[in-house]
Write a structure and sequence with these properties.
single chain; 332 residues; Nucleotidyltransferase, domain 5; 5-stranded mixed beta sheet; 19% strand; binds 5'-O-[(R)-(carboxyoxy)(hydroxy)phosphoryl]adenosine; binds zinc ion
Length: 332
C-alpha cells in the first residue's frame, strides 16, 4: 500500500511516499527556515504563501524520487493539526484536490501522533507500551503509547515548550533562529563551566515541565554579567542551558518509564535532533534495561514521511478518523 504524506503545519513544506507505513520511497522537505530567520521566528502569512508557491514542485519531486506516477498512490494523508491555521489550509487543500483527481481516500493526521510514529519508520519496531518524550517547537509531552491510536499524556509543559525555550534563549544570547541547533553547536566548544542554571521542577512529583523560569534565569544572568562588566562566554552558557534542559527531560522521562513499566523508551520531535539529549536518554534507558528508539536526524524535524506513516496506521487501525479540516490547537 502506497501512502502519499503531506505536511505543511509550520515552516516546512514536505511530501513523502511511504510503502506499507514503514518503507520510505521519498521524503522531500523544503524548509523556509532561512527566510523566517531574518525575522527571528516564524511569520505565519509568509509561511502560508511560501507553502503555496512550492507545494507543486515538492509533489513533483516526491513522486519522481519514489519513481512512481500519481495513479499508483493508494492513500493520501495530510496533517490536520496542530499547527498554524493558514499553513495547514495549504496542505489540506492540496490533499483534497489530489483525492478528487485520483479517486483515492484522504485521511487527516495529528502532527503530534506523526512525530511519535516517526519511530516506526525504522526496521526494528518499538515494543508497546512505550514511554515517549515528545519535544518540539510547540510541544513538550510525556506520552504513554499503549497501542496505535491509544495515547495517555502523563505530563506536559506548563509554559514554554523545550524547543521554544531553545529558540528564545538563543535569541537572548545573540544566536540565530532556530535556536536548538545554534545552541548545541555553540555548546560543543565550551571549555569550562562558570555558570549555573536551575533545573526547574526536577524534584516535583508530577511529570510536568516549566521552561520559562529557566529563560528568566538566563535573562538575570545576562543582566548581572553586564552590571559587573564581565564578558559572556556564549559556548559556556549554551552548554549549561542545554544541560539544564536535558537533565530535566531525561530524568522525568526515565522516572515515567519506570513507574509505568513501559517496554521501551521513545524520543521524537525537533528537539530529538539534539545529540546531548539522544545520548543521555540512550545511556539511561540502557541502564534501566529498556530499548531506546529515536528517529534518524532528518525524521526528527517536521517531515511528511512521519505523516504518511501515521495516516497508514490510522487508516488500518482506527474508526474515529480525524476530521479533514484544519485543527490548529488539537492535542494528541
Ligand atoms: O518538530 P519541529 O521541527 O517543529 C514543531 O513541530 O515545532 O521542532 C522545531 C524545534 C525548534 O524549536 C528547534 O529549535 C528545535 O526543534 N531543534 C532543536 C535541535 N534541532 C531543532 N533543539 C535542540 N537541539 C537541536 N539540535
Ligand atoms: Zn513538529
Amino acid at each position: 500500500m502506497l501512502t502519499l504524506g503531506i505536511e505543511t503545519s509550520c515552516d516546512e513544506t514536505s511530501i513523502a511516499v511511504v510503502r506499507d507505513g514503514s518503507e520510505i520511497l521519498s521524503n522531500v522537505v523544503s524548509s523556509q527556515v532561512r527566510t523566517h530567520a531574518e525575522f527571528g521566528g516564524i511569520v505565519p502569512e509568509l509561511a502560508a504563501r511560501m507553502h503555496t508557491e512550492i507545494i507543486n514542485l515538492v509533489l513533483h519531486n516526491a513522486l519522481d524520487q519514489a519513481n512512481i506516477n500519481a495513479g499508483r498512490i493508494d492513500l493520501i494523508a495530510v496533517t490536520s493539526g496542530p499547527g498554524l491555521m493558514v499553513s495547514l489550509v495549504v496542505g489540506i487543500s492540496c490533499a483534497r484536490s489530489l483525492s478528487q483527481i485520483l479517486h483515492r481516500p484522504v485521511i487527516g493526521v495529528n502532527h503530534l501522533e506523526a512525530h511519535i510514529l516517526s519511530n516506526f519508520l525504522s526496521k526494528s519496531k518499538p515494543l508497546l507500551p512505550s514511554l515517549c518524550l515528545l519535544v518540539s517547537g510547540g510541544h513538550t509531552e510525556i506520552v504513554l503509547m499503549k497501542q496505535f491510536g491509544q495515547y495517555e499524556i502523563l505530563g506536559s509543559t506548563r509554559d514554554d515548550a523545550a524547543g521554544e525555550a531553545f529558540d528564545k534563549v538563543a535569541r537572548l544570547m545573540g544566536l540565530p533562529y532556530p535556536g536548538g541547533p545554534a545552541i548545541s553547536a555553540a555548546a560543543e566548544s565550551s571549555g569550562h563551566r562558570p555558570y549555573s542554571l536551575p533545573r526547574p521542577m526536577l524534584h516535583d512529583d508530577s511529570f510536568d515541565f516549566s521552561f520559562s523560569g529557566l529563560k528568566t534565569a538566563v535573562v538575570n544572568l545576562l543582566k548581572k554579567l553586564e552590571r559587573e562588566g564581565m564578558e559572556l562566554s556564549v559556548p559556556d552558557l549554551a552548554a549549561e542551558f542545554q544541560d539544564a534542559v536535558v537533565d530535566v527531560l531525561a530524568r522525568k522521562t526515565m522516572r515515567a518509564a519506570e513507574e509505568t513499566r513501559a517496554a521501551s523508551v521513545l524520543l521524537c520531535g525537533g528537539v530529538a535532533a539534539n545529540t546531548a539529549l539522544r545520548q543521555r536518554l540512550e545511556r539511561e534507558a540502557a541502564h534501566s534495561g529498556l530499548p531506546f528508539f529515536c528517529p534518524d536526524f532528518a525524521l526528527c524535524t517536521d517531515n511528511a514521511a512521519m505523516v504518511a506513516c501515521a495516516g497508514y496506521h490510522n487508516f488500518i487501525h482506527r474508526n474515529d478518523k480525524l476530521p479533514l479540516s484544519p485543527q490548529p490547537n488539537i492535542g494528541i
